[in-house]
Amino acid sequence: MALHYYCRHCGVKVGSLDNQSLSSQQLGFDSLTNDERQEMITYQQNGDMHVKTICEDCQDALHRNPDLHQVDNLIQ
User: Fold this and answer.
1) Cα 63 to Cα 76: distance, rounded to the nearest angstrom
2) What global pTM score does this model have?
């Protein structure tokens, strides 16, 4: 099982963790609500997990332009 992190705004792959035996607590997933987990984490048929996060570029853009928080995808 691998975890793949993708930016929720632009879709860029942020990083991956391969063949790690990490608990939900170590990954920080335990601090998410059930709704947040359903929104952020998807399970692939091969057992991998895709996690929505935010890349540095989109974080900087949101910091400089707070009104962008209303937009789901910054880059289309």
Assistant:
1) 19
2) 0.79
pLDDT digits (tens, 9 = 90+) for 39-69: 999 999 998 999 999 999 988 988 888 776 6
Q: Which residues, in sequence order, are bridge partners of residue 42?
A: 50
CB 16 within 8 A of CB 1: no
Tell me how far CA of residue 22 lies from CA of 27, 28, 33, in angstroms: 7, 10, 19
Strand order in the sheet with 49-53: 13-18, 2-7, 49-53, 41-43
C-alpha 58/C-alpha 7 separation (Å) is 8
CA distance 40 to 14: 14
